[in-house]
Amino acid sequence: MTEINKDPLLSVRNLGVVYETSQGPVHAVTDVSFDVQENEVFGIAGESGCGKSTLIKALLRLLPDNGVATADRCDYRGSALMKMEGEAFRKEILWQEISMVPQSAMASFNPVYRVGDQVVESIQTHRKASRAEALERASELFDVVGLEPGLLKSYPHEFSGGMRQRAMIAMALSLDPGLIIMDEPTTGLDVLVQERILRRIREIRAELKSSIILITHDIAVIAEMSDRIAIMYGGEIMEQASTIELFENPHHPYTLGLKNAFPSITTMGTELISIPGSPPTLIGPVQSCPFAPRCPFDDAACHAANPAATEIAAGHVVRCVNYENSAQFRSLAKEKSTWLS
Ligand SMILES: Nc1ncnc2c1ncn2[C@@H]1O[C@H](COP(=O)(O)OP(=O)(O)OP(=O)(O)O)[C@@H](O)[C@H]1O
Ligand SMILES: [Mg+2]
Fold first, then answer.
1. Cβ-proximal residues to 51 (8 Å cutoff; 6+ apart), any chain
2. What does R_g of the chain's alpha carbons equal in angstroms?
């Protein structure tokens, strides 16, 4: 992959994660490579179960005991994340440099403590700050995410889902990290609340200059928020490019399928086409393109080996043996009959 910038904030090469299960090894993430630049929003999109949360848990070394991660490179500002001593990683990187808004943010607050005390404790664990200083910081952060500082005195159950999500974002901002990972920050919230949170995320990014990895299965959200996008399927990045490039010049049949399922002004009124079939189980070794069984354009080569990732233009990477036929795929993908056959 072209090194767009000599010093990306985060640089990941050939990351893999395997979970040992009673049914055999689950290849949840396979051969994933990407960079996150300073002050950018890097979006990761894909259907449920494609490995998005596993990927970030591997980066944050938060995998459960049955999960094993390997990578050729996983560097944050020059620190090899996976090779650091556990204690140094937890003290120097986790929360301080890379923080996370977890997928189950709803459950992330302890119900018996006031929300403000939990934010204050997180600040005092990592920083030399008096309680008054930490409280002042917590008030500032609540203001940033659009919560009344008076709400610091509330208990988690007194918050709505959207408020808890915003409080979690405040917590993730509390130590001025260089990178904030948000795993489905708006899933399950109503559209108005979603829109408000997305607006806050945009403001935070403009004001604080942190980079963000934004994970969602909602392609509309990712398109609106991200500078660059990686599309995942079956544990692999099928295509990645700048947002404009990905939408104007998509190459992978899976990207074309996702685009079809995403309503836009130009498609309003026309019938949405979704991709028939279901995602792979990921059990056992990867021996073919994971999308081949659902791909309308598959041929023998797709089933014979897992395609390598090819950089077709600077920063635009596609994992499809037939990427050279993409112009034809793009036109055929618009027909419903293409996806039904
Ligand atoms: N602890 C685990 N043990 C075994 N398999 C697991 C474990 N956690 C996740 N998996 C499997 O790994 C794959 C990827 O799961 P992951 O949760 O990373 O997907 P995801 O893209 O985050 O999905 P969602 O959009 O539903 O959050 C799935 O097949 C899942 O069943
Ligand atoms: Mg997930």
1. 17, 28, 29, 32, 232, 234, 235, 236, 282
2. 21
- Local confidence band at 16 (pLDDT 50, 70, 90 cut-offs): very high
Per the domain annotation, does 216 fall within a domain? Answer: yes
Binding-site residues, ligand 1, Cβ < 6 A = 19, 21, 26, 28, 46, 48-54, 64, 66-67, 103, 217, 282
Closest residue by Cα to atom 25, ligand 1, is: 48
How many angstroms separate the most distant Cα atoms in the chain? 66
| pTM, rounded to two decimals | 0.92
The answer to whether residue 3 is domain-embedded is: no
**185 and 74 housed in the same domain:** yes
Domain with 163 in it = 107-176
- Among 147, 176, 205, identify where a domain stops: 176
pLDDT single digits (tens) 158-204: 998 888 888 998 999 889 899 999 999 887 778 888 888 888 888 88
